[in-house]
Amino acid sequence: MITLAEMQVQYKDILEGIMALLAEDWKTCSMAVCLASVQPDEDVPAFRVVELSPRLTEKFRDDIVIPFLADLHKKWLSAGLILYNYDAASKPLVDEIEHLDFSMPEYEPIKKQIEPLQSLPDMGTFQEDERQFVLGLRFYAIRIQFSEDHEPVYFFRSYAAKNLLSKSRFLAAMWRDQDEYDVVSQPVLLFDKHIDCMSRGSSMFIFHKENFHYLFHFLEAVMKTAKHTLNVIKVRVPIKNFDKFAHHCERHPQKMAKLKNISQKPYLKDLTIDRIQRVINRMNKEDLGEEFIKAINEERVLLYDEKKPWMLLKLLDDDYLWSEMTEIGYQVDGKRELL
């Protein structure tokens, strides 16, 4: 079994391999831009290839992909970036990049959405009159590959129908040769210079987490895990007002992500009210409240109080920690396991 430290080395090597492409001859690089559209009753996107002129291909290469990799490389060399395993509930800092392997079973929903990108010849060409396709636009992928011996690299960016200029709520004008502006009547695709995540092989690096969740609707998959985790918690730990606790969790994306995080903790199967009380005994009694203390001491149950909606989740996610050095207790909003 691979250790966490070995995994970090692997992802470091993959990321450095992608950044090393900066030294290649980019004129030999093939490039494709694929739009992804998801219909209401579908889980897997339909893809269309955008036909690029040589000039537009250069713009994607020189104005988006190369500057993005160059900036990433600069930050990497200055030791300004840190790699961490993806955690659904974490809030990465600007210098933190989360990664995941979408060949793992828990990321199957992402894998299914990305697999069609491996078959460019099977994709149709984007036609602006495909109304349903346009309405379902969710993201696009920039695919680069230097040779058949190199694995392609994919750069993902969130997208929507509003990025088609003719669908915009703004009035768009274009300069004409007759010294006047005119209304834009032909659909125009708008692209910016941002990248939300990047993949090579089955390795995904995440730069904008909220957009990553939107891209692949990953929180929907998280919700399924959350419901299972709630059932496990219900069996393992007696909670007063459990139905209200579960209902509030299922309506809150961040709480669902927190539950997914809890589901991956090895201690969950051994969790008991006695083990939880060891933590409670060290907490500030005023923060807990009289009703909570009475429930744990007299009824041997945890009390869900909607006025303190995060307390139970933080207890279950082991977010109350004490320093051995200072003996001060902390409530943490995110933590990383030491290698």
Describe this structure in words.
This protein has 339 residues and is α+β, with helices and mostly antiparallel strands. It has 2 domains: 4-216, no CATH class; 221-331, no CATH class. The chain contains 12 helices and 15 strands. The protein has helices at 4-19, 54-77, 108-114, 131-135, 209-215, 218-236, 242-250, 253-263, 273-280, 285-288, 290-299, 311-316; strands at 30-37, 46-50, 82-85, 96-101, 124-125, 137-145, 153-158, 173-176, 180-183, 197-200, 203-206, 239-240, 302-303, 320-322, 329-331. A 9-stranded mixed sheet has the order 3-4-11-10-7-6-1-2-5. The chain has a two-stranded antiparallel sheet with strand order 8-9. A hairpin with a 3-residue loop joins strand 8 (173-176) and strand 9. Helix 6 runs antiparallel to helix 7 (242-250) and helix 6 (218-236) packs across helix 8 (253-263). The protein starts with a helix and ends in an 8-residue tail after the last strand. The model is unreliable at 168-174 (pLDDT under 50).
Short description:
By secondary structure, this protein is an alpha+beta fold. It is built from twelve helices and 15 strands.
Tell me the series of helices and strands, N- to C-terminal: HEEHEEHEHEEEEEEHHEHHHHHEHEE
Number of strands: 15
Task: Write down the domain tally.
Answer: 2
Gross morphology is elongated
Structural class: alpha+beta
Give the CA-CA distance, first to last residue. Answer: 15 Å
Instruction: Please count the helical segments.
Output: 12
Mean pLDDT: 85
β-strand percent reads 15-25%
